[in-house]
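Below sits our specimen:

——
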Amino acid sequence: DVYMDTTECTYTSQSLKDLVKPYCILNGEHDLEYAITYKGESVSDIVNAGDYTITITSEIENVSFNTTTFNFKVKPYEITINYSNDTYEYDGEIKSLTATAVGVFAGDIVNIVLTNNTAKDIGSYIVTAEIDNENYVISSECASHNLVINKHVDILLESTRATYSREDLINNIK
């Protein structure tokens, strides 16, 4: 039979091909040659998140393999989203929050699309985030965030001062 110790890992933005090591044990251990298929295409490396098929191409004289293919899964890397400008005081203008992806590997680009991200009336609005890079997944704790518009409150303090004479005080007591 053919074996492969690792069949799953997480995206790192680097080559993961070294983790793919199919082998057989037949009068000693033998490393095997293989081909990699990703999304229906033959590829020479494993980098992106997704499902790969590893097909054994080696032939050992007088040996037939029961297993000739393996699935190798690269899971997306989990990132977080930092939200800012999420709380406002009502002023009649349209408000929205901003979001930044945290944990993205150098050189990778992750665009964030925010849904339900505009509001102008007093209230709390749930904004959801989605990303456009299949190598990443948003942590469930930060896949949504509240956009809050609070009621505008005016506080008016008035100072009242009165001056009374001694006679006014005596007359008011009677």
Remarks:
- Residues 166-173 form the longest helix (8 residues).
- The CA atoms of residues 110 and 133 lie 6 Å apart.
- DSSP finds one helix and 15 strands in the chain.
